[in-house]
Amino acid sequence: MVSIYDEHDKPAESREIKMRLEVPDYDEEKRVAVSVKSAMQSLGKNIRYILIFFVTFLLISVAASFAYFYVTRQHTGSATALVMFGFPEAEEGLDPRGLPLDANAMRSPFVIGQALDALELRQRGISAEDIRSNLSLNAVVPHDTLDRVLLIRESALRDPARLMELEEVFYHPTQFLLQLNRAGNLASLSGQEMDKLLNEIVRQYATYFVQTFNELYFLDVVVGHFDPAEYEYFEIVQILRGTISNMLSYTNSMKNTAPDFRSPTTMMTFRDIWANLELVRTVDIHRVSALIHANNMSRNRSRSAIILEYNISRMEAEMAVARADAESALFLIDLYERETWSLPHMEDYYVYSRATEMYDGLFKNARDNSEKANQLEVDINNYRESLLALSGAISPSDPHDVRFVEDAIPQLFASLRDWETTVNQTVEDFLTLELYRDAVRLVSPSGFVSSMAAYRQMMIWIVLAGSIAGLFIGALVALYKGKAF
Predict the structure, then answer these.
(1) Are residues 387 and 312 in contact, defined by beta-carbon separation less than 8 angstroms?
(2) Number of domains making up the chain
């Protein structure tokens, strides 16, 4: 730097001071260059410290990464399956009984226990609670339903009146995401075993579901432990007629429900069963009834007369009530028709639906009570004829007919029990193979997804951080040893 003062303006002492103040700029640059060079020389001479710390921290970081993997290895993936309920009531959020559908039953200890037994996993120390605590169930809501809710919510921000529309958005999920995390004792299972376990849980639940609701359809009308000696002959005939009537009514309903279904177990259709039961009624039971009536058979005439008189009185009262109920229903039907006729423009769908349901209920009530009254009248007439025969002249019964009846009665009940078993087996096959075939269905079988990629990346970051720290600390020690600072 050049001074603007003339050398004659200031004394020599001042000029020397001025020169000393302007030189340090060059000395500072020189000192910085010397410092960098000295530092590099220190690092070169003491590189062993850098290597020592680098290797040490590298080994520590590698050990830390493996420790991290060991601690977190229990959470290295999950198996996921998509399950769907495929029966009609599910869309209303109900089970086949009409009760709220409990999808969480897939996580029940019973279902999980069945899966454990099927795969023999209890021997490996895995319990139902180990699985249940790591098994989650979440409903899947379609995108269009979510989009509709979000659209109404956004519109409601501008127009609060539209909030009422949210109350009209009802959706009962029929698809559920079942997820099994590999944690705890499940860490010993491979990805393939996790998939197999989750699929088995769904399969066991489907079996449990069918078995639970099969009972709604099973026929149970035949007397289990029946001792004919405790009943009069006319009572036996009454029991046989009532039993076969119920079985025919049930199989008639089932053959209308599944007209073409043939059981692979019984090799019969419901129409086949109905035809055979009708044959039992019109031939076997009628034959026994005819012989009892023709021979006026009775184990104790006085006791039979008392029972007949009581039954006649009871059934007359029931017949009167049934006819009164039928007449009341018919009166209401007639009133309903007149009121409907006076309202030709019924445009409200809800009112129309209720009116239709009411009419159907009244019609069914009138029909059922009329049929009941007619059947009671037939039974009363039969009982009166039997009572009249008992009070008449006593004639000996044909011993061959008595022996035939005594042999035929237990055979008839055994036959009805066999047919009940056939009916229920056919029903079970129908429910399992057709009606409930897709009641619980795997839309997407289990697929195991490993989380090792994320853990591998974290282990790499741990090693890199340790290596960089080792280099940095080693460099600081090397500089310190070289007295570079």
Answers:
(1) yes
(2) 3
